[in-house]
Each structure stands twice: as structure tokens, then as C-alpha cells.
Amino acid sequence: MTPITLITDFGTGSHYVAAMKGVILSLCPQATIVDIAHDVPPQDVRRAALLLDDVADWFPAETIHLVVIDPGVGTDRAIVYAQIGQQHFLAPDNGLLSRLAARKPPTKLLQLSEPAYWLPQVSTTFHGRDIMAPVAARLAMGLDPDRLGPPLERLLTLDWPLPRESQARVDGVVIEVDAFGNLITNITADMLCGRPTDRRACIVCNIYETWGIYHAYAEQAGGTLVALIGSGGRLELAIVGDSAARRLGVGVGTPVTLAWEGKEE
Amino acid sequence: MTPITLITDFGTGSHYVAAMKGVILSLCPQATIVDIAHDVPPQDVRRAALLLDDVADWFPAETIHLVVIDPGVGTDRAIVYAQIGQQHFLAPDNGLLSRLAARKPPTKLLQLSEPAYWLPQVSTTFHGRDIMAPVAARLAMGLDPDRLGPPLERLLTLDWPLPRESQARVDGVVIEVDAFGNLITNITADMLCGRPTDRRACIVCNIYETWGIYHAYAEQAGGTLVALIGSGGRLELAIVGDSAARRLGVGVGTPVTLAWEGKEE
Amino acid sequence: MTPITLITDFGTGSHYVAAMKGVILSLCPQATIVDIAHDVPPQDVRRAALLLDDVADWFPAETIHLVVIDPGVGTDRAIVYAQIGQQHFLAPDNGLLSRLAARKPPTKLLQLSEPAYWLPQVSTTFHGRDIMAPVAARLAMGLDPDRLGPPLERLLTLDWPLPRESQARVDGVVIEVDAFGNLITNITADMLCGRPTDRRACIVCNIYETWGIYHAYAEQAGGTLVALIGSGGRLELAIVGDSAARRLGVGVGTPVTLAWEGKEE
User: Range of A100's domain?
Assistant: First the structure.
């Protein structure tokens, strides 16, 4: 059965998550529910938007992604249905989908307005359970998205820091720290095209430097700071066998510079 | 397939949970296992009883709920099967089901005694794996609950603090803190019937006060203490965009008073 | 559908885990994915090897276990397919399977080398997603394991501390601390055969002692240190209603001695 994925800030083990799953299974008993994350920091729309952008492409066509980080629940913020690629997305219109949509523009964008597909009683504080979960279940059962509500002109978008590129350097920033403490930046592999990746490339983060871009963590000895292109196609910094975040004392938002020797401006 | 839900205090990622899932899937390969929570604080029967009461109604008929918080495992405490509404419940008889059962009396109550439905070897320390998981799997496969054992007269019950109501006020208590730090009380929406919910209603928690009962968190500015009726139908206190638990320095057990002006006794 | 279980150190809620699930569901939409643990401490091969050994036997025949603790990803370490009992295992060849395999020798051992069964593009840092997940999905779809690659002669093995047994005592060590703080040792039930388990048996851990081996935690009063044979068939130490790890200030690696009175050497 088509997967329904969940990204929320409700907390792993929270009764809010269980209630959403119960609603989905009540309407679509054969749903394949996939927990992506429930430990997004409370109301951290940006973190969830990044996570969604990281994972969506790996799921099959027709997957329904349900993203509920919803500080504006009960106000007049819209809830959107978006078709992006061949997948379906449901989220409050607060920027959650905007990072993915910047890369892959939606082919359909609707504002949920048809209560026939919601729970009979809708609370003012939990639209994940009362609106989005039943709509996801009904989409999984084959409901035509066009019946959910009228078109929405555009998504609310958030600004994302872009690296500044010049001939001799790229100035980026750490956008994610993974469970290993690896520092994942917004500098992408294509920014390296045609430039040396050997020791002429110098990567600076905080007061630390490393030279060359490696292929695997274990190419260097334990405790070494290494730069490499991670599995998401972005430059990342790691300490072999340890946490770069902890050892370097840095985190999301820390500037990272990639500079090429002899090309200083 | 009928869902089998799990609530335990074994810890997310624990081998105890995996063993239970393995046993269920060995006997019922098509089971839809739903993790509700495995991070209930060790042996906290009350927390699990509240959680079960919060979530059970959202699941479909025939759902099998397996709740394993079992400090008395291996002693002569009973293991019960309860039919409540149209759902099935399996748990040690230590109060886990008593909060839900107070609201919705069981229509069938049995004591598990028929080893034919258990694993061939039953340990003295893990009846979740050796007795309850195989029974849940067999119920999912269509086993008639009446074959599990003889009727049990009554569940062991726990006392739950009830709010004290008078004409001018309701004295309740925080019974839950969610992942946002919202303080959820035992004061229910029906206790507000016919009483003003505007600024004549004063809510006091610790040394903090707020007036009026709102509909949505974001109706007030960030950092404001607001009271509202949460998605579970209970009075809750929240700090907009922040954690009320942390900011107010309170938690489960803290008294919360709702008082109406000009109606002081 | 045959279960595919996952053990990783990627972190619960990590995008790495979601990507693996997306890949599996893209190739095998009806897969039953079972999260065993994603919170293995980063690169802790031993912890994952123990966990796998604890849980594998409880899963049904044909289960596919995917274990991704892979500090050597991108180097020339092999990725192995092992058939153990009637189950399938996929893991980097770094010792992850060696504890289970010591107990149940593999009946088939292959080195993954056939890229036709991998993703078209293989990164150098995430073979869990690019190699192991698609292979697991294809095995679940019925792929003959023999097509994965050539035989591998032997698994890389790790040394595991074995208890030292003599007539009067067994010297073991804590190998696991569970969510309750119970201390699980490498002393197995069979080492007690024919020896007294009553108060003539003295168990020493750090500076603490207890006498006799009990059957259930709750046989003693709250706060008591008790020894018992746990559900995995190993001697464990627990504090009734509390955490032995915290109360005794000990953890993995702490020596535990079981000695019989009057039998001192």
C-alpha cells in the first residue's frame, strides 16, 4: 500500500502521534505508515523543511507526506495539498514545503477547504489529527486531490541562506548536524565542478582548517578533521570516529569556507 | 490487518521491544504493529494508563492494545484481557486499564490462564514477550477471546485526582506535560459549561495568572501565558512559542485553579 | 510480507533512516519494515552485534536483518550476506554478525559484489541506502541470494569477554544495561547447573553483594539488590523498582562475580 509518511514535532511516543495513526488506520486499514521523525524541535519549521527536502526523493511515486509543525494551528493560516514530482504533500502553509518546492515546483497546489474529508469534529488546536490525517488516509484510498479545495496561488516561502561563490572561494554555512556530529553545509557538489579537490582546496570552520576533499570517512586516521561530499551531495565536515560538532564546538549556522589556494581575490 | 499497538517502558530501540515484535510477526506475519510509546518512564503505570486513555478512542474497532508496564512480572498478579468498546486490551492487572475502564466499562474481562496460547517456554521476567505478545498475535488471527481464560471479576483500580468543583472555582492539577511543554490538566471542558470563558475566567498555576480561555495558541503574542481547551478536551496552559513547563518551572502534580470573578465563595 | 528489520546508529528520526525506508518501499512496496534500533551509539559495532544476537531468534524464518554500523564505509571493507538459521543478514563485514555467528554458524556467506542489485548511483558514504537497502528489498521480492556475489570464506570476528569458570566461582562482566538500569552479565544460566541458587550463591558487583538467585524482580522489597536469570538466559542484577546502574554507579564492563560458599578455591 502507498506509504503515508509522518514528520512532526509532537515527540516520539507522544499521544498526538498515536492519535494521528489511529485516525489514518480507521479510514485506511491497509495504510503503510512510515515514521520519518517526531522529534523535530518544537515549532522548528526550518528543520522540518530541510528534513523533508532530504528524504522525499527516496520515496516511491504516490507517497503521501504529512508534515505537521503547526504553531499557527487554529488561526487563518491555510493547510495545503501540493503535488510535487509524483508525490503528495499535506502541511500547514508556513514554509514547510517551500525548500523542496524551490527545487521541484509543485504541479498542483490546493488549499484544504472541504470539511467532508475531515473528521466530523475539528478541534482548534490539532489539525494534524482532525484535518490532515483523515485527508491523507482518503488520498491513500484513492480520493481525487482536486476535491480537497480550491487552487492556492503560491506557497508561503522562507529564505534559505545560499552560499556566496566567487572565483577563489565559496562561503557557506552548516545547515545540519547529524547523529554522528558530522557538519553538513549548504555548499553543494556542483560548486566544486572544475576546481581542484586535492590539498589545494582548504576548508575552514570556526578556527579549524583541513585540506582536500575526501571520499570516505575512514580514509584518514581517527581524530582527523576531514571534508567530504556527503550522501546528500553536500560538503560536510567530520572528525573520523568522533563528533565534529562537539570537538569543534560548532553547530547549525556556523560559517564554513571553502577556498582554493592561489585563487584568493 | 487489525492493528496491534504497543505501549511499554522498555525503551525505544530496546531488544525487549524487538523480541515482542518478532514473536508477533512469527505468529501473525500480516500484523500491523503500531508503536505508541516505549519511553514510558520505568514502571510508571499511571503515565501509561493516561496515555492509553488518551489514544484508544482514535483507533479502529478490533484494534488490539498491548500495554506492558509490569513491575510485578513473575509474581501472582494477573494478566487480563479486556474488551472495552469494540477494542481488545491485554495488560498486567496493575491499574493500567483502570483509567480507560472508569470511563468505558469493559464488556468482557478475563484472566489469561490458558498456556496453549503462550510461548512454549515462559520466563519469569518477560511476560510481554512470552504471554502477551503471542496472545495478541493469536487474537489478530481470529482467536476467540473466551478461550484465553476464566472471567475476572474486576480490574485492579488506581485512584485518580479529580478536580474539586464549586460555584466559583475549579481546583485541578497538571496531569501531563507534552513535548511542547504545554501543561495539560484534569479540568475538562464540560466543567466550563454555562460559565464565562472570557477575561472573567482567571486561571492560576503556581504564582502565575492568566485571564480568559482561548481557542488557538497563536491568538496571543509569543511569550504569553495562555489557557485553552486542548485537543483532548481538557484545560491546558501554554506559553506561546515556548515551554510553559520550563518557563513556569512546574510539572505533573502542580495545582491549577480556574476561578470566576465575582463568584468567590 | 517477510519482515525487513533495521539496526543502525543513524539516530531515531534521522533522514538517513528515512532514505533507507524510502529505497526499500520503492523496490518492495509491500515490505514490512521493523525498526529494531536507530540509537545504537555512533559506530558502536559491539553494541549492535549484541543487540542483533539478542533479538534475531525471535523473528520468523526468512526475516531479512539489515545492520548498518559502518565506520569503514567507502573503504575496501566487504559487505556481507549471511544465511544464519533460516534468516538472512546484510551488514558490513566489521564484526556485526560475528557474535550471532559464533553461536549459530552461517550456512551461506557471500560478499556483495553485483551492482545490478544496488542503486544505479552508489555514494562513498552511505552504502546502507545505496547497496544494502536495495539488496534487502530485492531479497524480500524473492531474489536468490546466490546472485549477490561470490562466497566469502569467513566473517571478520571480534573477541567477546568470556566468563572465567572454576569450581567455586564464575567471574563475568556486565555486557548490557537496559532501560530499567538492570545490569545484564555474560554469565549464562547453564553455568549454574548443579550449583545452589539459594543464599549459598553470592553475587558481587563493585562493592555490593547479594545472596541467592531469584525468579522475579518483585519477590523482594523495593530498593533491594537482587540477582536473577533474565529473559535472555543471563545472570542479571537489578534494584527492585529502581536503576541498579545508577544506584550502584556501574555499567558495561564492570566485573560481576558469582561465588559459592564453602567452595572457595
Answer: 3-147
